[in-house]
């Protein structure tokens, strides 16, 4: 039986009398990179927050490696899930090196110092995220992109079985966007990532899940999901899909000021999620 690091089973979140996430079922297999995309306010961050336990779902279950997340001690789930989230705070006046080392907290007892292996792990993560030269800088003095890379390094050193990232390319220049997403392709990582850039999502993800108004409306490989019909229907944008000349991944070309379809209008032509790709 294949290992299943994450299974969302009928996940629902309600707040203020509104359904923010509606019976979302989705799995992330070992070594898989699954992208979560959708318009603003479609429930992506809310779903992710249930996985890293910033939010308790009102219905359904999050299974982490076959165990109900709600029954796991927080410290244990922190060893299983590392998050780079919108609220990953760096309000503490710590150095970059200290912030990255905080990623080891779930593995330490009390004030136990980092081992030589852990210190090397932190330095390697800083090197991979191109922040090693900032190691002694106060994190509050960093630019938005530098800070984002520090937080990504902190998530990596947690060595969790599952990495969840909410718009990790925020603030990053294109070189660092490509570098960070390239790191996610590490065969040792299992990843659920919220992305807005559908072209980058198509390049990095094994599968893409699309949320619209809290509900899963499509899931499948990039070729199955990134279509002109879906982009028109879910995002209300007219686009042309072309294959990437080197990889064949679908890439979207947008024409500014072209006629746009109202979001949700293509529901009729899209059919059900199951008919458009593998089952969630
Ligand atoms: N605590 C809350 N109470 C009421 N509504 C909320 C709460 N948290 C989030 N929402 C609403 O739920 C919806 C989904 O929010 P969420 O942040 O999950 O969307 P998203 O898909 O991540 O959006 P974006 O692409 O803009 O980041 C939004 O309309 C948001 O305003």
From TrEMBL:
<keyword id="KW-0067">ATP-binding</keyword>
<dbReference type="GO" id="GO:0016887">
    <property type="term" value="F:ATP hydrolysis activity"/>
</dbReference>
<feature type="domain" description="ABC transporter">
    <location>
        <begin position="6"/>
        <end position="238"/>
    </location>
</feature>
<keyword id="KW-0547">Nucleotide-binding</keyword>
<dbReference type="Pfam" id="PF00005">
    <property type="entry name" value="ABC_tran"/>
</dbReference>
<keyword id="KW-0813">Transport</keyword>
<dbReference type="InterPro" id="IPR003593">
    <property type="entry name" value="AAA+_ATPase"/>
</dbReference>
<dbReference type="InterPro" id="IPR003439">
    <property type="entry name" value="ABC_transporter-like_ATP-bd"/>
</dbReference>
<dbReference type="GO" id="GO:0005524">
    <property type="term" value="F:ATP binding"/>
</dbReference>
<dbReference type="InterPro" id="IPR027417">
    <property type="entry name" value="P-loop_NTPase"/>
</dbReference>
<protein>
    <submittedName>
        <fullName>Iron complex transport system ATP-binding protein</fullName>
    </submittedName>
</protein>
